[in-house]
Amino acid sequence: NIEDSNNMFAILRNCIYNSEANDKKPLNIKKVQPINNHVFEDRKSQKIKVQQINKYACSSLFAGKVQQNRSVFEDKKSQKPKVQQINKDVYEDTKSHKTKVLPINKDVCEDEISQKNKLQQINKDLYKDRKSLNTKIQQNNKCIYEDIQSQKTKAQQTNNNVYVDRKSQTNKVQNINTELVHRKLGKPKVQQTNKDVYMDRISQNKKVQKLNTEKVHRKLQKTKVQQTNNGVFENRKSLKTKISDLFRVGRGEKATKKLQDWINMISNQNNCFFDELQENYKITIEEVIRNKYDDENSLSKVVDIRYHDVDEIDMDENMKSGTVTFTNRDSFEGYFSHDMKKRIGTCHKNIPHNHLGTTGTWISGLLEGKAVIENSYGGYEETFFKRGVKHGYSRSFGPQPKRKDNLWQVAFYKNGKMHGHFWRGCLGGGYITGVSEDNEITGDNIAFLFPNFKDGILGKFVKGKLISGVNVKLVNVEIVNGIAIGSFSRPMNASVLIRDNSTPYSLSMHPLQPDMHEHARVEVKQSNTPDSGEGLFAKTEFSEGDLVSTLNGVRMSPSTQDDWSDYKVNFNTALDLDVPVNMRRLDQYCATLAHKANHSFCPNTRWGRLDHPRFGMVVTILAAKSIKVGEELTVNYKYPITVAPQWYKDCYKLFFGEKHVAKIY
Predict the structure, then answer these.
(1) For residue 330, which of 303, 290, 298, 360 has the smallest C-alpha distance?
(2) pLDDT of residue 597
(3) Which residues contact 575 (CB under 8 A, 6 or more apart)?
(4) Based on the number of CB atoms within 10 Å of its own CB, is 416 exposed (0-12), middle (13-18) or buried (19 or more)?
(5) Can you tell me the distance from the alpha carbon of 462 to that of 444, in angstroms, rounded to the nearest whole number?
(6) How far apart are CA 71 and CA 77, in angstroms?
(7) What secondary structure, in 3-state letters, does 341-359 show?
(8) Is residue 434 within 8 Å of 613, Cβ to Cβ?
(9) Is the dihedral of CA 204, 206, 211, 212 positive or negative?
(10) Is 193 exposed, middle or buried (0-12, 13-18, 19+ CB in 10 A)?
C-alpha cells in the first residue's frame, strides 16, 4: 500500500545518506532500480484501484441523483393540476370581485361628481353674497367717513370761534388790569371787573354748551330726515317697480295675445294665409343653388308608363295622366308631358320601407313652386321650391290637426338655408325661436317659450338642446315679413339654468334650484283633504288647458317586478318617472312640484306631457277646467285597481260603490 511504499522510500533515503556520510562512496544504482520498479508497480496498481473506487462511487452517486430527480419531477407533475385549479379559482374570485366593484365605483364616481357640482354652486353663491356684502359695507363705510369728516370740520370751526372769543376776553382783562394799575384804582373795582370777566366766561361756556346741544339735536334731526328720505326713496322705488311691472305686464299681455293670434293663423291648415305670404313677400333670387345634375341629365329614363283613363287637364292638351316608373325605381303618379319635362302630381322615392310621397310640380326634373312633403310621423311639410331647392316660406304639421301643438315648424328658406327667425314646436305646446346656424337649432340667443306664451328661457342652444340660459318674460312681438319676432325682458333673477335631465340613478344635479315660472303659478301647503299631508294650491287663475305644474322623476322602464311607489307616473310604454323616497320633501327636492298634487276622482287637472328645456321629457298636469286662486289642485292617479294600494281601493269603493256618499275625494 501507499504507507509501505513511503516507508521503503524513507529506508532507501537513509541508506543512501548513510553510505554517503560513512563511506563517501556513490550508491550502487543496480541495487536501487529493482526497488524503484517495485514501488512504481505498487503505485500504479494503487492508482488503478483508486480510479475503480471513484468510478463506482460516481456511478452510485449519479444513479441516486437521477432517482431523486425523477421522484421530484413526478411530485411536481402531480402538483401542477392542483396549482392550475387554484389559479383558476383565484381568477374567478378576482373576476367576480371586479364585477361587484365596478357598479360601486360608478355610483361613488357619480356621487362625487354631484357633490362636486353642489360644492361649486354653493361656492359660487357664497362668492356672490360676499361680493355684494363687501360692496354694501364699502358704501356704508364711505358714507360714515363723509359724515365724520363733516362733523369734524364743524367741530374745528366751533372750537376756533370759542378760542378766538376766549383770547379776546383775555386781552380785555389784561388791558383793564393794566389801566387799573396805571390809574392806581382801588382793589374793590378790580375785583368787580374780574367778577364781570368771570361771569362773561361762564356765559360764553353756556353758549358753547348750547351750541353743542343744538349740534347734537341737528345731528339727530339729520338722521331722522335721512331715515325719512330713505323710506320715501324705498317707497318710490317700490312704486316705480310696481308701475314698471304693471307696464311690463300690460305689454306682455298684448304680446301674448298677438303671438297667439299669429300662431292660430299660421297653424290653420285650411286657410290661404300661407300662400298669401309667399305672394306678398317675394324675394329676388340672387344665386339659386342648382341641382348637382343639369336640366338634361336631371331627367331619369322612363321604364314603364301606365296611362289612366281620365280626362286631360285643360291647361295643356299635351299633358297625359298615368303612373310612370323610372330606371332608378322611383314612381310618379299624376299628369305629365310627353317628354317628361313637366310633371304635376306625387312622386315616391325608391327607399325600402318608406312609401312617403312628395306632391308638387317638376320642371325639367326639379321641383318648382309649392310642394307638400309627407313625413314618417303622419304629418307633412308645406314649402316652396325654386329650381330644386327650398326658397320661400315653409311650415310643418304633425298627424293630429286638432292638437294645439300640431304646428311643428315655421321658417323662411333662402337658397336652401333657413333665413331669419324660425319657430320650432315642441311636445306639450312650447316653442323654440331664434335665428339658426346652418339649418340647425343652434345659437347663443335662442329662446324657449312655454305654452302660456308668457314665460321663457333665453340662452345658448345646440341642436335644439339647452346648454345654459336665464328666466325671462315675453314683452313684445313684431310681425316682420309674415314671421313673428319676440322680444324678451331682462333676466328675472341671477340663476343660470343648464340642461338637467334625470337618469335612472339621479333625479337632478340641482334639486333645490326651483323652476321660477312654476313656483309663480303654484305653491305647496297643508292639504284640505284629511290625512293627506301636503297639497298643491293655485297662486294664479287658470283656464282650461293651461299648464299648471310639471313632474320630474328618475327614468326607468315599466315593469311589474318593481316595488310599488305612489309617486310613479307612466310617461309612455317605454318610460316611467318616479320620485325617490329621499327626494319627496321640499327641503330635499323642489325643482318641480307636481308630485305634491293629491288624488281625486273629481279632479280639476289632467295629465299631460312636455318637452322641457331644462328637465327634458316630463309629465305635466294641465287645467281641466277654470281654477281660481287658492284652490287646491288635484288629479286622478288612475291606478290599476288590481294592484293599487289599499287607500286607493277604499276611495274607489267609496266613490263608485256608494252613490249617496258625498264626493269628498
Answers:
(1) 303
(2) 93
(3) 555, 556, 557, 558, 617
(4) middle
(5) 9
(6) 10
(7) CEEEEEEECCECCECCEEE
(8) no
(9) positive
(10) middle
In the block, cell 480510479 appears at 51
Short-list 501, 529, 618, 634, CA closest to 569 = 618
Euclidean distance between CA atoms 512 and 125, whole angstroms: 13
Burial class (CB in 10 A: 0-12, 13-18, 19+), 300: middle
β-bridge pairing 616-623 and 455-462: unpaired
Closest CA to 338 of 307, 361, 370, 360: 307
Say how far apart CA 620 and CA 389 lie, in whole Å: 40
Q: Which of 272, 274, 259 is nearest to 393 (CA)?
A: 274
Residue with cell 358753547: 208
> Burial of 195 by CB count in 10 Å (0-12 exposed, 13-18 middle, 19+ buried)?
exposed
* pLDDT tier at 4, thresholds 50, 70, 90: low
DSSP string, 529-562: STT--EEEEESS-B-TT-EEEEE--EEE---TTS
Structure confidence by residue, pLDDT tens digits, 271-317:
777 777 777 765 544 444 444 444 444 566 777 888 877 655 555 66
User: What does pTM read for this prediction?
Assistant: 0.59
Sheet holding 632-635, edge to edge: 522-526, 534-538, 632-635, 598-599
648 phi and psi angles, rounded to 5 deg: -70, -40
CA separation for the pair 511, 513 (Å, rounded)? 6
Do 344 and 358 meet the contact criterion of CB atoms below 8 Å apart? no
**Phi–psi pair at 418, nearest 5 degrees:** -65, 135
Q: What gap in Å lies between CA 485 and CA 646, rounded to an integer?
A: 53
* Backbone dihedral angles phi then psi of residue 431, each to the nearest 5 degrees: -135, 145
> Phi and psi at residue 325, in whole multiples of 5°?
-115, 130
The answer to whether 548 and 522 have CB atoms below 8 angstroms apart is yes
